[in-house]
Amino acid sequence: MNNNSPIGHSPTDTSGSISQQAALALPSPSVQNQIHELAKTLPPPRKQNIACDACRQRKVKCHQLPGQSKCQHCMVKNYPCTHHAQQATSEKKRISTVSRRPRAYTTNAQQSPRTPEKPSYLVSPAPPSPQPTLSPYSQATFGPPVRRNTSFTDLLAYLLSPPDEVNDVDGYQEPTHRINPWKDWGEVAYKLQDEHFRIEFALDLVEVYFQVVHTRLPFLNPTHFRARLNQFSCTRRRRGGPLHPALMATVVAWGAKFSEHPLLVADRLNSSSRQSSLAKTLIVRAREVAEALKVHRVPAAEHVVIALLIEPLQSRTLPIVPSLFPRFWLTSAIRQLFDLQINHKSVISNIQDPEARGTMIFAWWMACLSDAYGAAYYRRKPQVEDDDYDVDFYTVDPVSMDSDGQAKPDPREHLEFLGYYRAAHALARISRHMSKNLWIPTTDSEGVPVEVLRGIMHQLNEWRVQYLPRVGVPTDFAAEWDFVSAVSACASDATFHIMWIILFNALDDRGIRESLGSPHSTALGLQEQIEELKIKVLEEALHGAMRIAGLAGVPAVMHVSCNYAGVLLARFGRPEVQNCIEGLEQYSYSYEEAADQAQELHRLFTLARAGQTDFAHMASTELQVSPPTQQARSLAQPPSPVGLGNGIYPDARTF
Fold it and tell me: Locations of Polar residues compositional bias (predicted)?
């Protein structure tokens, strides 16, 4: 026996050694208490990060209430609340665990899988493999993989990638259409797997943009844009093209709204709402590309144009308060215009390039008008004040000439020649004045002062005399009336008349201060004057609503006008509301909120016909409504201009 053995056993004798060694390894009770106390001081185990992708990227707290499908941040920002990063981490851990398992050794190097250079999808409905290769834009990547020098083909590969891969509309879900990942976009959407088809499809949407959208929002020069697009897309691997990817994405998204391409037609037929899921996805992805390239942060002339094009592109149907997300891009554009000092005449005059100078002038006026009209429409104070700019001209270059020496102005020059910009600016100043006096706390609590009411009515009447005969819709349409003039006249006419409707709604909600128990209400004859003013506003608002209802059949830019006019007509139970309902139903193919607005008009009209009116301070004027005269009918329903067709045209809905 080895006496050196500590427990009296030979080294080869293991009987009872394990239990004895375990007993010797246990710490004493005092040491156990110390370990227990030390454990109390240690930090808790790291909590698993379950934040969504948007909150991860922006480094904000992800707070999701029970029963909601999105977190609060994504609901407010209208972002897709996805968890691609979390799922990718879990998948990486699973793969790592599997990779550590012993594998059978093989000497055949050719058996190792090789990653394909480009994604390939099977055209045939019966693929040889049940799991085809995914595209590089899979669920593991959040946000657009787009940079300023991204090539044209790579940009289209992202914009037109399958919805269940980027899946930025409905959030993450396990792909169910592995054979045809584009199945949710219609029966022919599988063609998007072909790069040549994607290019032809995108170029078709660009042409739709210039045929439909550019007529109303002429931010871009078609010739220059097409030249830059050729440089951007002529070579498959060309990098650093001069065309901004966010601008290209926005133009493509606009074109998808109004295109009659067979792919989009099949997509609309595939949807119960008659709206294209692909078009909605392109809008979301265009916005994400702009955000990724910091269009909303960095002041630049091209960023201003992109932001002003994105703002009216978006839907106004939101799960939270509608005023939270709209005008984000308009606010960004205005801030950048101020940063670039475009509100100074001297700065604009120093821009040497005529094309760049004209674009910045037009961008300034579109932002200025959109802010003023939007303030009246959505009941907020304007961002731009009357003394924030000294720009008193609209175009600085002569009207262009064609090859025959005849004047061939672009939409900007043509509208200025006809006086539309100056008339719109004059009306915008009135709208700005209305917003600063109607949507303030004192008016909300005390009512609209009668002098403020008189002042607004006087300004609107002056504008009618000075501008409406020149820029409004004439009572008799000329056969040679061009498209730009027709669309602009309808928009100008409707924008003026909607101001009376807004004024009527403000008086109905707020009331007139002097008739709400004010000490000034005892003045002799003041109450009679107030009633006369209320009746006058009612007559103007009702006439304007019927006028807009008559113009609703003209393919112009009257989405907001149709809704405002339709609500007033429906509340009075007027049959003319049917024109507005049909107009909104037509707009619903491109603007999803228009369908809900048409249903609301149906509901209000039914209630009014049943005698259930909801007028407040203007209830005393309800009995003054009389059937429209023959003259009013003729003014409210002008004949349709020749050659305008029956299409839908974009509405700069911030106006």
Answer: 1-22, 105-114
> Which range of residues forms the domain containing residue 550?
440-655
* 349/395 Cα distance (integer angstroms): 11
Number of residues assigned to the chain? 655
**Separation CA 307–CA 367 (nearest Å):** 10
| Residue 211 in domain | no
- Tell me if 57 is assigned to some domain: yes
Evaluate the CA torsion angle 330, 335, 337, 338 in order and state its sign.
Answer: positive
- Residue 488 has a pLDDT of 80
Q: Of 85, 109, 130, which closes a domain?
A: 85
Amino acid at 20: Q
Radius of gyration for the alpha carbons in the chain, expressed in angstroms and rounded: 33
Q: DSSP letter string over 207-235? A: HHIIIIITTT---S-HHHHHHHHHHHHSS
Q: Which residues pair with 401 in a beta bridge?
A: 407
Mean pLDDT by 10 residues, the chain (655 residues): 43 42 51 62 60 77 77 75 71 50 38 38 35 37 74 92 58 49 84 92 95 87 87 53 88 94 90 85 93 94 96 69 65 96 91 88 92 92 93 55 52 62 92 95 93 97 94 70 75 93 95 74 72 94 94 73 94 93 88 88 93 86 55 38 30 42
In a domain, 500, yes or no: yes
Q: What's the Cα-to-Cα distance from 360 to each of 277, 332, 476, 504, rounded to whole Å?
A: 34, 15, 36, 36
In sign, the C-alpha dihedral spanning 518, 613, 587, 157 is positive
Query: Cα 335 to chain center, whole Å?
Result: 18
pLDDT at 179: 62
**Are the CB atoms for 632 and 546 separated by under 8 Å?**
yes
Query: Does the residue 604 lie in any domain?
Result: yes
What CATH number has the domain bearing residue 63? 4.10.240
Beta bridge partners of 508: none
Closest C-alpha to 329, from 372, 360, 371, 387: 371
Query: Distance (Å, rounded) from C-alpha 97 to C-alpha 85?
Result: 18
pLDDT of residue 398: 47
Alpha-carbon gap, residue 529 to 545, rounded angstroms = 24
The residue behind tokens 């209630």 is 607
Q: Distance between CA 184 and CA 532 in Å, rounded?
A: 58
CA torsion through residues 213, 327, 365, 495, sign:
positive
Residue 217's contacts (CB-CB under 8 Å, 6 or more residues apart) are: 308, 309, 312, 366, 650, 652
Among candidate residues 477, 654, 498, the one with its CA nearest the CA of residue 554: 477
pLDDT given for residue 18 in this prediction = 39
Work out the burial of residue 535: count CB atoms within 10 Å of its CB; fewer than 13 is exposed, 13-18 middle, 19 or more buried: middle
Q: Which two tokens stand for residue 220?
A: 């871009």
pLDDT value at position 309?
96
Among 60, 85, 110, residue at a domain's last position: 85
pTM score, whole prediction: 0.71
- Number of domains composing the chain: 2
Per-residue model confidence (pLDDT) at position 421: 84
Cα 115 to Cα 118: distance, rounded to the nearest angstrom: 9
- H/E/C letters for each residue in 558-606? CHHHHHHHHHHHHHCCCCCHHHHHHHHHHHCCCCCHHHHHHHHHHHHHH
